[in-house]
Design goal:
The chain has 257 residues and is mainly α. The protein is 83% helix and 0% strand. The protein has one domain.
Amino acid sequence: MAGQLGAEQGDSDPSRQSAKPSAVRRWGLAAALLTGFAAFFVFDLGRFVSLSALAGNCEALEAWVDANPVLSRGAYTGVYFLAIAFSLPVGVVLTVAGGVVFGLFEGTILTVLSATAGAFAVFLAARSAIGDSLRRRAGPFVARLEAGFRENALSYLLVLRLVPLFPFWLVNIVPALLGVPTRTYVLGTLLGIIPGTFVFVSVGNGLETLIDQGKMPGLEVFLQPAVLIPLAGLTVLSLVPVVFKRLRGRGGEQSNQ
């Protein structure tokens, strides 16, 4: 009788009941994203996403888009969102595809919005699952880095988004681990990926012409000066607030001395 009473009290313990949904909320999204990532490689879905496959199906894709204007745009944004949320290595091909079937400006808009939403899903998963625990264990170095991000988070994010020095998925996760505010993360991602997206979409917009000429563009097209120079200029501009704050801080210290 006493054992049954204890069991009933244990089952009705609000702290135990709240622990289960809390764990689901904390790890559920991260588990779902990791499952999607694994499924992509287990089922070898990457064979359907390549520049050669895109080149061979340009006409069919354009015909399908013309026949299904709403469905095609919903499908593109949904697939792109999942690709970014699952951190799949197909972003370049999908972005080029957006330029092929939707044109320069609409392709850029759809891609930027989809990529931002997918990146936000990764940000939420990282922050809810491992953000706090990792920051507590990381030590003073990460604490200093976190302080710098909080001071100039938007400028740092713009640099990371404008210059593809690090994988897109990594830039999605790191700000979450360093305590970057959600609004700053979304704004920095949205603005920071516009120039690069525009460049990749523009390549896709001219892909059909190149195919008609018997040419197939490779990734080396993105290393051309006409592409790199504008991105470098935007990167320098995004660093101006950081440099200005540091110079102003040094000037204040010297005046106090």
